[in-house]
Amino acid sequence: MTTEARDKCGVVGIFAPGEDVARLSYYALYALQHRGQESAGIAIADGQSVLVYKELGLVSQAFDETVLKSLQGHVAIGHTRYSTTGSSSWENAQPTYKSSPDGQIALAHNGNLVNPIELKKLLHEAGGDPTPRGARLASSSDTDLVASHIARATAGDLRLAILDVLPKLKGAYSFTILSEARLFGARDPHGFRPLSIGRLENGGWVLASETCALDLIGARFIRDVEPGELVTIDVNGLTSDRFAEIKPAACVFEHVYFARPDSTLMGQNVYATRYRMGQQLARESDVQAELVMPVPDSGVPAAQGYAEASGVTYGEGFVKNRYVGRTFIQPTQSMRQQGIRMKLNPLREVIAGKRVVVVDDSIVRGNTTRQIVTMLREAGAREVHMRISSPPIKWPCFYGIDMPDQDDLIAANMTVQEIQAHIGADSLAYLSFDGMVTSTQIPAEDFCTACFSSKYPVAIPEEQLRSKHVLEQPPSTERPRA
To answer: How confident is the model over 347-367, as a mean pLDDT?
Structure first.
């Protein structure tokens, strides 16, 4: 997969008296590192106070043994971030902390709201920045806005404050929230972003963006937080409130790319879904070849399914450098133009002289795919046939994926034949829309497919309000459409 489309974040929440919840949160965030690499943070509560620690960088860079030992309590939430609203800065790292007349809260968010300007205006109209203890905005993220609204609404009970604020939010959100002694989890009415519930052996509770995080810390999957549901966890167990009517629109791209293959989404194992996508892709667009190979790592399950259905030998044609990730040390301009070479190196012995089918999950701008085709030809491939295990991406996402504007989406501006020529492949084929949805074994009406179909479940904001830096811009006098 190209690195041109990125998910916003991963969140975790743990309520487990008697357990080292900071360390459990740390391990759970490790499992969710693929969902965001800009910053990581943990908030912890001990029944009396809330403490937040966050830093820029990967989970392993943000925390060490000294920090983890200092985080003592029985309730924790964690966050790993890729920004879709607000800059990549320490101030915008999460969890976000607020104090209110009734106590302290911390909040972690996976998703993206489409009405942040409206929320900011409502906050100011309500006198939302009056005192250090009130709803003071400390960053330019939509997460900070939500936490400020909750702090402002608190009137003796945080649960009621959250239930008061959630219906005002438009867009995608999966939240983990804590107070001094309670843990909360919430999903928007459409369920755009996943959030699962698990139990530890000692009876403790875990919330996590993906079930792979539950597996890593030894928690048993119970169920998903439902769209439009707020769960509250304390010493009395878990209780549930329904704050909105369910309008299912889970992100289908989670199944295509974002989720880890060992996770379960909507009752389906992600690896098995991607394997079926590869099988269907072979049935729709088989080609004569001697080798089927993936673009690692996200293309692996689909490539294996393609090889099985086509009868063509599967092989690993790329070696991936697993130590290349986000870095503050930028490469030279010449290396930036060949950035994929820092991550992937072709195996000439496997590729040379062969007709090769290369399976990837998507094409966004097309630049990375073009570099991959060039590298394979340089390694001696006789023919290069690109196969993509999802339909063409023609529309941007506003619900938690940092995807380019439509002008930068290659499939929005070129036909499949033109894209094939642009990337230099001998052939190019995408999985059909129906083939993708059928492969999930989930009804089409339960998905958001806007990036493929232009059918947006929640009205998108006006063009000038779509920037991820919208909350850093001077306020507009126009009322936003949301």
So the answer is: 97
At 15, which helix (H) or strand (E)?
strand 9-15
**Range 295-308 average pLDDT:** 96
pTM of the model: 0.90
Cβ atoms of residues 317 and 291 within 8 Å? yes
CATH code linked to domain 269-322+331-445? 3.40.50.2020
Judge whether 448 counts as a catalytic residue: no
Map tokens 């993509």 to a residue: 388
Q: How far apart are CA 4 and CA 257, in angstroms?
A: 12
Domain boundaries, the chain: 6-249, 269-322+331-445
3-state secondary structure of 403: coil
Structure tokens belonging to residue 403 = 């995807």
- Tell me what pLDDT residue 235 has: 97
pLDDT per residue as tens digits for the range 158-186: 999 999 999 999 999 999 999 999 999 99
Among residues 9, 251, 448, 451, which one is catalytic? 9
Q: 325 is written with which tokens?
A: 């990730």
| Homologous superfamily (CATH) for 6-249 | Aminohydrolase, N-terminal nucleophile (Ntn) domain (3.60.20.10)
Give the tens place of pLDDT for each residue, 209-220.
Answer: 999 999 999 999
Angle separating helix axes 270-285 and 433-440, nearest 10 degrees:
150
For residue 325, the model assigns a pLDDT of 56
CA-CA distance, 209 to 228, in Å (whole number)?
A: 16
* 65: number of Cβ within 10 Å: 8
Q: How far apart are CA 220 and CA 203, in angstroms?
A: 10
Alpha-carbon distance of 435 to 276, in angstroms, equals: 9
- Host H or E run for residue 268: strand 268-269
The confidence band for 472, taking pLDDT boundaries of 50, 70 and 90, is: very low
